[in-house]
Structures are given as C-alpha cells and as structure tokens.
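Run log // design_07
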C-alpha cells in the first residue's frame, strides 16, 4: 500500500480514537515566504531561498507544523476533510503531512515540527554529518535531495569521494557542488543505491511521491537510511521510519 496510505490509515485510527473527527476543529494551512520560514541564513543557496520550494504551515488547536512542497496552496477545513483527500497531488500531500504533524504535536506524540532558522541550517548540516559518523562510522553517503548545507558538511566529514547526491531539479542536475556531481534523482537511483552504504533522504520524498520506489530499492539492497527534515516528523513516528532533524523547533 505505500507510505502515504499507510500514514493516512494510522492517522485516521489515532484521530478517531481521540474523537477529533467529531469535533469542529479547524486546520488551516498557508505558504510561508522564505524569510518567515527560515529567517536570514548566511548562505543564499538553500532551495527555499532560490524559490524552488516553499514551506507551508498548518495550525491545529494552536499547534504549528511545517512541510516542504513545490506546490504550495492555502487550505481551511477539518481533519475529516483532509483525510478524505485523494492524496494524488503534491499539493494535497503537503497539506496532509503538515496537518498530520500539527495534530500529532498537539497530542504530544512528536515535536520538532518547525523548520530551523537563521544560522541553524548551517549548524544542522554539521550536526547531521557528525551524528552519522558517530553512529555508523566512515561510510559512503548518498544524499537524496540537494541541501547545500548538508552536502557541504558531508563532504568535509567523509570526503567528496564518499558522497553522492541526487535531485529532481533540472536546474541543478549535472552541476557540481562541493566537488560532487548532482545526479538525476530518477534516472540515477539504481546507481546511487548500489554505490553507497547509507542514504540520507529528504522528507519531501513523501510529498512528491518518490519515497516508495526509493524505500523499496533501499530495503532490497539492505542499506541503512535516515529521513531528514521536519516534513517527515509525523510519518516517521507513525511508520517507525528512522529520522534525523537536530534543529527542528518546538
């Protein structure tokens, strides 16, 4: 059945048990502008700063949560409305995961649902690289989703010869970042999984519909992986998916 549908089913069971479907509870979601979302980081090459992605913020009973998407849209409605989405578009999946994160946060089941700001994305990259080294030792790392701060930190820690990176953005595929060529996230997936020991996967793969194919290849190859970022905060908890997000707020 796939991670998105598995998350929907598990989320439905929780909100039904908590009688939240029967309440007139409003969930609102809206896109944030870059400064509102991540403040003023020193570096200007983050995807959100370049306008390739946006963060939407969902609010549920006063609790806020974020989700990355390339298809931001506004929404106002109940949890029942969201759970009835077809979840076939990036826009609907983004609202679903943002609302899921906010609701699970309200229930005290997760935290760290707000994106880091200002200088924290830079520190986050270094902390992720340090934690991977601490937990797994020296490995060949595959970064799924070009996050320049994380990529730079991985290269510094593991060496460019031990780092691979893929992305879906045609503007960056084929370019070189920190000595590493950016591969096509669709056409080079098999090679990526084959050549690395551990994959660091953006949570945005849940929103853009690419997670299931990638996860299946990683599972079959017996490779370790970690999801990173606030987008996957709720899904990681619901589905027991390993996640790292050292500077997620609140």
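design_07 sequence
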């Amino acid at each position: 059945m796939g991670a998105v549908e598995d998350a929907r089913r598990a989320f439905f069971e929780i909100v039904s048990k908590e009688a939240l479907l029967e309440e007139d509870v409003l969930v609102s979601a809206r896109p944030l502008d870059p400064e509102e979302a991540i403040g003023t980081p020193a570096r200007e090459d983050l995807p959100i700063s370049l306008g390739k992605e946006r963060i939407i913020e969902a609010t549920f009973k006063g609790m806020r949560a974020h989700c990355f998407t390339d298809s931001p849209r506004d929404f106002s409605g109940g949890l029942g409305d969201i759970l009835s989405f077809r979840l076939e578009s990036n826009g609907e999946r983004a609202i679903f995961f943002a609302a899921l994160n906010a609701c699970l946060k309200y229930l005290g089941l997760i935290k760290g649902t707000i994106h880091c700001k200002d200088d924290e994305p830079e520190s986050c990259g270094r902390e992720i690289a340090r934690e991977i080294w601490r937990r797994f030792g020296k490995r060949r790392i595959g970064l799924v989703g070009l996050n320049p701060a994380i990529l730079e930190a991985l290269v510094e820690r593991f060496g460019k010869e031990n780092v691979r990176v893929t992305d879906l953005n045609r503007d960056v595929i084929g370019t070189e970042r920190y000595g590493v060529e950016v591969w096509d996230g669709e056409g080079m997936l098999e090679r990526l999984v084959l050549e690395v020991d551990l994959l660091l996967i953006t949570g945005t793969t849940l929103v853009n519909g690419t997670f299931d194919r990638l996860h299946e290849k990683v599972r079959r190859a017996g490779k370790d992986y970690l999801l990173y970022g606030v987008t996957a905060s709720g899904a990681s908890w619901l589905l027991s998916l390993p996640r790292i997000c050292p500077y997620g707020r609140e």
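The chain has two domains: 3-106, 120-244.
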